[in-house]
Design brief:
The chain is mostly helical and about 160 residues long. It is about 85% helix and about 0% strand. The model has no long low-confidence stretch (mean pLDDT about 95).
């Protein structure tokens, strides 16, 4: 299959780099600015803001890169051979890991926070914040790693 897609290798890997870069940037922004800023707010503001942000992020623009990043990485693997292929495979593994971390780590916490409503914001925040931040750091690392190795595959 790599032979039939070889002429598309560069545009596919470029698209994979862009999609994974957008994902990495999203999670990095949360890790470096949003969560430290929210850490300085009161419990009710923190919970309300995260509930609204978690609901708003489930939109076609975000989902296109969230699902597109690993899909494009998989296409990149299919279009790549030789010395670049192991790098493309690593990019796919890291892009897929980002989705797994989000689905297994962050989404259940988001769902629990949504279910908590506004009855006890202190308890809701305590059950959410530290774990969510740790999972977000993991997906920041996996998505940034995917960006790097896919970029390297593109340059080979």
């Amino acid at each position: 299959m790599a032979d039939s897609l070889e002429h598309l290798r560069v545009p596919i890997l470029l698209a994979a780099v862009v999609a994974n870069g957008l994902q990495a940037g999203t999670y990095y922004t949360w890790a470096s600015g949003v969560m430290p800023g929210l850490a300085r707010t009161d419990d009710r503001t923190f919970v309300s803001t995260m509930q609204h942000a978690n609901a708003a992020i489930v939109n076609p623009v975000f989902l296109a890169t969230f699902l597109g990043a690993p899909a494009l990485a998989a296409l990149g693997v299919a279009a790549t051979s030789g010395a670049a292929r192991p790098w493309a495979l690593a990019g796919l593994a890291l892009a897929a890991a980002t989705v797994v971390v989000t689905v297994v780590g962050n989404v259940p916490l988001n769902d629990a926070l949504a279910a908590a409503g506004d009855a006890d914001p202190t308890a809701a925040r305590t059950a959410f914040e530290d774990s969510w931040v740790r999972w977000n750091v993991v997906r920041t690392a996996t998505s940034t790693g995917a960006l790097g190795v896919l970029g390297w595959a593109l340059s080979r």
